[in-house]
Structures are given as structure tokens and as C-alpha cells.
Amino acid sequence: MSERREHAAELLNRLSKLNKNEQVKILCSGSVDSLIISAGVSMRLLSKQISFSINSVPLITKELIENASKKDDSLFLCIDSPSEKFTALQESLQKETTFFFDHQGSLDAIRAIAENSTPHDALLQKVHFLLLPADEQSEEIQSFRKMLSACCKMSLFSIGFGALMGDPHMMQSLQRSYAEYSSKAERAVAWLEDNMHTKLTVHSEQYIIVNTKDKIPTYTTPALGSYLSKRKNKHVLMLTRSTPQICSISLHVHDKEEQEINELMARMMQTYESAKHSKKNEQGLHWIPTSNEESFIDHAKHILEKMSVEDHVD
Q1: Sequence-distant (≥ 6) Cβ neighbours of residue 28 within 8 angstroms
Q2: Which residue in 20, 47, 50, 130 has the fewest CB atoms around it within 10 Å?
Q3: Residue 183: which H helix or E strand, with range?
Q4: What pLDDT digit, counting tens, does each position of 204-239 carry?
Q5: Phi, psi for residue 294 in degrees, rounded to 5
Q6: What is the value of pTM for the model shown?
Q7: 110-119 core/surface letters (b: 16 or more CB in 10 A; e: else)
Q8: What integer is the mean pLDDT of 112-136?
């Protein structure tokens, strides 16, 4: 049995021993998989009439865990996707009553819970089916997962969780949210097509920089940047205003791993002359004051050109 499966089995064992007088707290990151595992655990707790609370956040931090985990909790669950900071959190905050789950660990845990469910746990089985490989999912399940993904991108975690728990009103809200996301994503693509050759875009043989200003929602930027990078086979740097004062920045390279892209982005931000003004927002995107947009674009052009030369040499 792998370490992850042992971890999942241990969680299942802890859940089976809980009684009605105990308290469970769940903290999960704002991703589809995190919501799914949280819903699966919550369904099991509901069936045993055990009190629990759940909080979904865009990005889990050490401070959030420290504030959320209390001594009087019978069980504290921290559910997150894999990243460099995940191991550090696990090592610094591991407690006897705390479980951390990355993506694969979440899959193992919900499968273990689903396999031990009764034939009447229809909702739990549906959650289990959401974790199947895409080619094994029914059309209904694939559609549901797309709606959940859009909901998470819009940070509407409570709607996604409610839909997973079978609330009909939340399901209707999920469908409306997905329609809104799809409409705004389509308008974002149309805006991009109309502005590909305006002063808001910078083109070179190796990269494209797009400053959308306040013309598209921030949550459509990742999909838009990925779409453009794949279509043009270039590095794409996207700037989008989250507020009149804050500009979010993201880098997209379709043929590189996420960790490598993150390293390129970190390098760009670290060498920016106004790095003291740059930060990460709660979605994990870098941001700068909108007043620094033009100076950052000039800096980004230099860095992207240097990266392109290095890639060519390699």
C-alpha cells in the first residue's frame, strides 16, 4: 500500500471512530478536486450526524491553517493541490489530528470513502464518479465538472460545494454561474481578436504581451493566455486590472511544465526594478500597481527576449 493510500485509510479509520459530540473542521483550497474531497468527507460526516464546518479559500497559507486549526477540533482537514509550499506546510504544521491531501491523495481518500459507502449513498457515488479519468466519465459528469471548474475560477466556492452536496438551488446557481462564465469568456476572446494589433499588445517572434487593462474579468485571463500561447506557439504575458489600482500578471507557455513557467515568472518579478511593489494576490497571480504597467512591460520585453535566446542556445 502506498503512503498516500495509507493516509487515506487512516482518514477513513478516523472518520469511522468519530461520534456525534465531536467537531470537525475542513479547510480546502479553491480547486475542483479540493471541493470534491471536501464534499465526500462532509457527506460521510452528515450520515453519522457529526458537526462540521468547512471553509474554501483561493489559496491556503500557513497563517490560514494556524488560524483555522483549534485545539478543541476533534479532526482538522487541510485539503490542497500539490505545490512547492505544500511540503513545507505539511512539515511545519503536521499534527496528530490533522490530515493534508495533495491531488492524488485526495483521489485516494475519496475512493476509500466511496468504496466503504452504502448503496444508498447516491451523492457520494456521484462525487466518486467525478474523479474518474475523463474518458471514463459520462457526458453528464463531464458537464458537471466543467461547471464546477468555472465556479472555482470565479471564486464561487460555496455554490460549487452546495451543488456537490445535492442542493437544488445551488445547482441552479451553478448553472447560472457557468452560463455567465461562458458568456464572459467568449467576450474576452472577441476582445482579444479585436485588439491583437493595437497599442495594447506587443508582438515579437518569441512572445506576445497583452495589456487588457479593465476590459476583461481577471478570472478569464488564464484560459485566454493559454489559448493564445497554444495558438501562436509563443510565450504570452497577460496583464489584467483586478481593481483600478491593481494589475494582475500571468505568464503562459503551452509547451512547458507549470513549475518551469512559475520559475520564469518568479525570475521576471525578482529582477523587476520595482519588485518591492510587486506581490502575489490570493489566486496566486503576481500583481503590481496599475501605475507601473508601462515600466513593467518594458522590463518584461527585455526578460522575455533574454529567455528566448537562452532557450535557443539550449
Answers
A1: 34, 35, 37, 38, 54, 55, 56, 57, 60, 77, 78, 79, 80
A2: 20
A3: helix 168-194
A4: 888 999 999 999 999 999 889 999 999 999 999 999
A5: -65, -40
A6: 0.81
A7: bbbbbeebee
A8: 78
